[in-house]
Amino acid sequence: MFMLNDNPVEYDFGGSRARLLVSGNHTDDAYCMLEMFSPAGRATPMHRHENEEETLLMLEGELDAIVDGTRHRLLAGSTVVLPRGSRHQLINSGAQTARYLVICTPAGFDRFVDACADAQSGQVVPHDPTDADKARMREAASRSASRFIRRPRRLEDARHFLVSQKNHSRGRPIIKRHR
Fold first, then answer.
1. CB-based contacts of 161: which residues, under 8 Å, 6+ apart?
2. Backbone angles phi and psi of 72, in degrees to 5
3. What mean pLDDT do residues 145-154 have?
4. What are phi and psi of 132, to 5 degrees?
5. pTM for this model (two decimals)
6. Residue 68 · residue 86 · CB < 8 Å
7. Contact assessment for residue 137 and residue 36, using Cβ atoms and an 8 Å cutoff
8. Whole-angstrom Cα distance, residue 24 to residue 29?
9. For 24-59, how does the pLDDT look when each residue is reduced to its tens digit (9 = 90+)?
10. What strands, in cross-sheet order, belong to the sheet with 47-49?
11. How far apart are the C-alpha atoms of 88 and 10, rounded to whole Å?
């Protein structure tokens, strides 16, 4: 199937810019692809996808990816494959915006983004996520296969949390750095 998308939909995704390059509607839900822009100092919540494998290809900048309790440094050219069910968080602790592609198989993450973000008529200006943004994401997650993971407050809960993180994933992340 041929598809040309020369006018991708732009979203204000919790204060970050997201561009929908290929939706599940274009691929019979085989996959979706988004271009993400993570401002300096921004982090996703710890989460997992119950239905999708997630592949990230770093285009610019750098991110720390915490995957099932282990921190990995992603630089431009790095690729990471996050198995379905793996607990992960992406953190931009650098000084510049990180830009990366997200490819999810099967599609579904594109519908999550659409459910919790508004399409924009122009380029999104980064801003801190509002309480309304966060509430909308939690509501969209409750209706999708994305799950936010709360951090434990007590030390004994933290130990259990880390052990369960290591035992939960169906596979290990695959990280490659391309030069």
1. 151, 152
2. -130, 140
3. 54
4. -65, -40
5. 0.78
6. yes
7. no
8. 4
9. 999 999 999 999 999 999 988 888 888 899 999 999
10. 70-75, 62-67, 88-91, 47-49, 146-148
11. 24
- Answer for the pair 38, 128: CB distance below 8 angstroms, yes or no: no
Work out the percent of the chain whose per-residue pLDDT is above 90: 47
Would you say 82 and 174 are in contact if contact means Cβ atoms under 8 Å apart?
no
- The two tokens of residue 119 are 């399409």
Please spell the DSSP secondary structure of 122-162, one letter per residue.
SPPPP-PPPHHHHHHHHHHHHTSSEEE-PPPSSHHHHHHHH
Among candidate residues 108, 69, 75, 105, the one with its CA nearest the CA of residue 89: 69
Residue 159 has pLDDT above 80, yes or no: no
Which residue type does 112 have? Answer: F
DSSP state of 165: H
- Amino acid letter for position 84: R
Residues 6 or more apart in contact with residue 85 via CB below 8 angstroms: 48, 49, 50, 168, 169, 170
Report, in angstroms and rounded to the nearest whole number, the Rg of the chain calculated over CA atoms. Answer: 16
CA–centroid distance for 90 within its chain: 7
Residue 48 or residue 100, greater confidence: 100
The amino acid occupying position 17 is: R
